[in-house]
Every structure is written in C-alpha cells, then in structure tokens.
Amino acid sequence: MYSHASESLIKQAREIQESELQKFYSRLMKMLQGKELGHDTVDSLQRLHLILSATKYTRTLPLELQKRFVALLSSPAEQHQVLSTAVLRETLPLTGQELNYNQDNLGQLNSHAAGLLLSQAVSKGDLSSLCTQLLRNLESRPSEGPTHSLMHTLPVLNNVLTHSPECLSEDQMTLVSKKLVDWLRYASVMQGVGTSSGGFFTGPRSRQPVPIAELDGSVSGDFFTVLCVGQGFTEDQWMNVYSFSMLRHWLLTYHSSCSTVDAANRLQLSLSVSHSFSNDDRSEVDGSVVSMVSATSSSSRLLPPKERLREKAFQYCQRLIEQSDRKAHKKTDTELQKACLVEAVCILDCVCAEDASLVYRTFPCIKALFGRLSSELSNARVLLPIAQFYLNHGEMAAVDCENVWKVVFGRFPTELFNDPFLAHELLRFLRLNVESIELRVPQYTLYFPNLLKFLAWDSPAMVDDFVDLLPSMVTTGTAVELLHTLLDLPCLSATLVLQHRSTCLPISEPVGRSFVSLDAFRNPSFRGLFLFVLRTEAGSGDTIDRLSTLHELLVEAADWPRVTQCARTVPVLLHIFFNTIVTIADEKLLAHLILVMLERSSLLLNIPAYIKEIHRVFSCHLLRLCKLHPSLVVNQSHELLEFAGSTANVYSKEELYTHVVWVLGEYLSVSCDSRCSVSLITSCFEALEAVLFEITSSAPPTGTVCPAPKVINTLMSALAKLASRSHDLIPRVSLFLSKLRTVTRSGSVAWCSDEEDLVAIVTRGEELWSLLKAPGVAQSVLTPPPHVIAPQWHRDTNVALPLQLRALTSLTHSQ
C-alpha cells in the first residue's frame, strides 16, 4: 500500500520513545520562539503531524507548545496555518482556563482557525463564543484587515447554525440580517482588478476595472448577483455569492417562527415598494451603486431588519429569474442558471410562507417561468421547486395547478423514468409533501401507474421511497387496479427495458442476439398490451384479458437483472398494500380483493421464486382478512370452494391452497356467520373429501413432488371440523381415517416419500378419529367458543383462578 520509504517513516513515528519525543518538543519550541520560521520549522511541523497521526493513541502537547500552535493559526503564511491546524486536530483540546481560544490569542480569526474551533467545540457555550468572534469580524470595516478576511465567515457561521441554531442572540440575528442585506443588494457593480480567484466565475485577465457583465456578454444594468460575470471579483461580490448560498438556510432557521410585523402592515409596506426611486437606501456599505432599474423605495427603511432582508431576498430572486432568461455562452453557465433558478424559487417559497402578501407579487413571475421551462425536459429538475411553490401557495392565489401536475406526475415519469437524479428528487418531493398532496392534489392517486415506473426501472434505489409513498396511493377507488399493477410490476420493468432498447436499436439495424419480446413490443398486434402496461393514469381498467399472452411474450425477461430485482420488491409492497387497505376498505371491497388473489395466483410472470413469495403473501393476508371479517368466507364460499376443489392447486400453489382449506374449515360455521347452512357445509365437505381421497390414493402427477404433510393434515383437520358441525358427516370422515391407518400399515405409499412425514400424518389422523368418536367433545375442541379461544379467567372475579395467581405470585416474590 505504501512505499518502503513511507512505511519506514511511519514505523519510526510510531516507535518514537517518550524521552526522544520530549526533546523534539523542546527543539520545536525554540524554533517557534524565533522571529522567522524557516524551512527547518516547516519540516519539524510536518514531522510532528506524522508522529501524532501515525498512532492510534491521542497525545497531549505541552501547554506552552500548544499555545504556540494556537498563535501560529494567525500566521500570515497559509502553510503555517494549515500545519498548525492539522497538528491541533490530532490533539485533545485543553479544558478549563489553561487554553481559551478567543480573539486575544488567535489574533485574526481565519478560515483554518474557525474550522478548528468548530471541530473542537464541546458545548453550546463554545459555539456561542465562536459566533461572537465571527460576528466581530463582520462588524469590522474592509480597510481594517486583508481583503480575504471575511471570506470564511459565512460558511463557518452556516455550519454553526446547522449544529446549534439557538446560539445567536436577537441582536446578533439582527446584525447578520443587516449584513446580508448589504451584500445581497449593494455589492459593487465594478469588476475587481486582476484574475478571478476561481469558484463560480472565470474570465480572462483585465488591468482596469470595468462594469460587471451578464452571462450573454452584455453590460449589467442592475445590481450584482451570482449570475454576473467578470474578469475579477471584489470581496463584497464574493460575500454576495456566500450570502445567497446560505440565505435559504438562514430564512428557514430564524424567520419561519419569527414575525415582528403584523401581516396587514407588511402588506401595506410591500405594496408601497417601487412607487418611487431613491438613492438613500444604501444600508451601511460605502460606495454601493443603487440600480435605477430595480431600486426600492425609501419606504423599505420602515421595515425591521428581518422584514427588510425578506424584501431584498425577494428582489434578488426576481433578478435571478430575469437573468436566467439570457442566453449563456458556455454550457457550464447554463447549468449555473438552472442551479440558481432552483435556489431562487426555493427562497421565494420561503419568503412567501413568511409573508403572504408576497404571494400575489411572486405568482406572475413563477407562472411565466413555468410556461417558459415546461416545454423542455432538460428543465425537469428546475420545475420541481416550481411545483412546490404551486403546492404551497396555489390555493391562496386561486391559481389553476392542473398543468403543473400533468407535467410533474404525467410527463416526467413517462419520459424520464431512467433519470436517477430526477427520480430521487421527485420521490423526495412526494415524501416531504405527501399529506399536502393528498389534500390539495386529488388526481395524485390516479398517477400511480406512472410513478411506479421509477420503481420498476431501478427497484433497489427506489424501494425505500415507495415503502413510504404506497399507503398514500391506496384508496377504495384505486385498490383493485393498484393490486393488479403491483403484481404486474415485473412486467412493467421488462416493458420499460424493451421500450429503452427499442429507441436505442432501430428496426433496420441488425443485432447480435434476437429478442422475441422486442419483436413483440414492435408488433402492432400486441401494441395494446404494452400500452396498457405503460399507461399514464389509472381508470382505464383494473387489468387486461390477455394477461397470460403478455406473460408468454415476456417469458425471456424472467432472468433480466432489472426484472428480477423488481420482482424481489413486490412482496414488500404487497404487505404494505394489505396493511393499508384493511384500515379503509369495507367488506365488499375486501371480498373483491380475495377474488383477485385467487385469480392472480395463477397469472404471474414465470419467475419461480417470485411466484412462491406472492403465494406466501396472499396466504398471510387471506388469513388476516378472514379473521377480521369471518363473513367473507360465506360471501366468497363459491370461489373458495372452486379453488380448494382443484387438485392441481395442491401441487402448484401449496402454500395458498393450504391456507384456503384452513379458512374454510375454521370460519365456515354458524358461530361465525348465521347464513352458514348445512348444505353449504356439506358441499364444502364433499369438495375437500374428493381432493383428499384423490391425492392419497395415487402418485403425484409427473413433474411434481409429493404433497407436503401440512396440506394433508390441514385437509383432514378441515374435514373433521366440518363433520363436528354436521354430525351426519362424521361416519364418512371416520371411514377415511380408518382406511388411512390400514393403508399405511402395509408399508410405504406413493403419495408420501418420507417415513417420518407419513408417521406424522397417521398420528394426526388417529387424533382426529379419537375426537370424532365423541361428537360433543369434538365440537368443543375443533370449534371452541370465543370465550375459550380468548380466555379472560385471570380477570374474572367470579372464579378462583385470580386468587390462586395472587397467592403464587406472593409466594415466589417472598422467596
């Protein structure tokens, strides 16, 4: 991993003796006391950093040496600042009064010192002290320090606010708001002398200051923003950029919960803006140029600092939106325009949430911006903040939002389902606003076929999002179609792959491997099948008649990676679907869902592991639905009996078949539903009896395995339960059970290959036979009354059990 020389140095650093280390500390201390720090000092600092970082143990420097390093943070040489910061990061900060990082021993607070303080702050008091030092720098005039003295201030302050927003006092918040106003609105409009320091802007050399320019090359006629370009930039212009980058965080942190001006007064003041022009509103910055294009009136001075910052932020974002309409010369500048638009719309959303009067001033601009951007898919990520703005304020402004949702929920997933960044941002938008969307966008639930395309295309990355979103898509009107859609999700995944390949591989271009499914996708006779899978909105039908045909066309897609990954997510979503639907659906809808489960159990894309998992999910929730609503068994008795009476289902749908039989035996009872008649019990008994007789009298069909003991035991138990409710059937069950014992005595049987399984089946049969010899006992055991199933004896004061429990408890506790 390392070269031999590097490993040797690291080994020496780790094995240095304490005595030698103390001597090294002394030599370094003498070097740092000198007036000039030469190359030997730099080499020693680098060696000390290696010694400290090469060991897993944290070392503590001598107090005087550590103070020297703290003083070195204020060195004019950045190399010394970097090395001293690196060394101090590897040591434990001293506590108490031994070493106090403050303005006195730091000299001038630079970016390296501020970063060190932020990393080593252990309490809110430390962060408050750091904020005080940062704000002290903000109050200094530009002439009092080097030109880069403030460059670090806002980024570090922003980090501090992230960790501890409450560390600023009211006066400090007012100061920051005033400074942000200065930098945002009154930065110099002349280019700085010299080359740019990099970052947002690039440009050729220039010796004489000239006015700043727009991205299209024209001279700017308004105040400076992040979208202005030049050959060099002044410090206040860089502070303008930093201010804009932290403006939204600042507004969300300190303005959302604070309101110092009554809403009516804010409305009156905001409406008076821009009626007259004045150069008096220059805040505290000397030499600022006030634009004659967008200068605010002197009435803005009536606003408190927070309200004034809100107004300036509004003007700044309006100017950015205007600048974004200019044709940029460079592609990178075009991307910068989009990024700034996203931030500008988000900031406008914040200020409108704080001041409702700004909604009416903002919406014309937002509406025009949407009209300009919505035609180009390349602007998709910019349109999401616009959709957020419409969602938050469209109702107040009485604006029709239908076109916005058609683009966001309709066009984006249809055409950009394979864009991972858009998918992440759109799903994040939905997760953050799901309650508001359900309330204000009723058509949202109709777009679930389209939104599921993101999941079908990239299931591993999107499954967490849909775990949160799926409950919001489940309604009584969409439940049946949504269930079909979830079961066909692997088909949707395969169809999206075919659609993508169809656009990438022209029909006339030969390919090395022939895809039958791709030919079918391009075949007009099958086009309707694929169009239904790719539909944008729900409501065109729950499913299609030729679903088996679609599965045959996509048979080769069963082993495609995207399809198999998608298939693994479906069981998870089905659990969420059923957990949600039981809370909102009535018995009629639940009965319909049971029919869908029985029908779709044989209509799934041929992926064996997928089919097995779906049957397991169906089995689990069939039991749950019937337990919550036992009358469903009588309502759907015809379909359940038809399913349970098919011997083929024993071998192909073992899990689901077993649970259907158990449900029939458990809930087909007068105690569960008074409509349950003797004839219904008899017909169910005869259907299950025929199946049990068939599978225990012959070998399994070719290509299948013997039925599991669980299936046979469940069938026998169900027959015994039904016979206990209609005593005329007991002789028929007893006859079968006696024959079963006689047949198994002769040795192995064709329908059970394992001897232990056979013993378990026979034992179960003998237990049931013994019970049925006493019909009254059998009914009490096989169909117990509710008070026996859920006993409350420990709470019943009329019996002796509570007294016995209390006596036993006191005895055990006393011991």
Automatic annotation (TrEMBL):
GO cellular component, as recorded: AP-5 adaptor complex
InterPro entries tied to this protein: AP5Z1, AP5Z1_ARM, TPR_AP5Z1_C, TPR_AP5Z1_N
Domain (AP-5 complex subunit zeta-1 C-terminal TPR) ranges: 465-811
Residues of the AP-5 complex subunit zeta-1 N-terminal TPR domain: 1-295
AP-5 complex subunit zeta-1 ARM repeats domain mapped to chain residues: 336-453
Source organism superkingdom: Eukaryota
Name of the featured protein: Adaptor related protein complex 5 subunit zeta 1
The organism of origin for this protein: Maylandia zebra
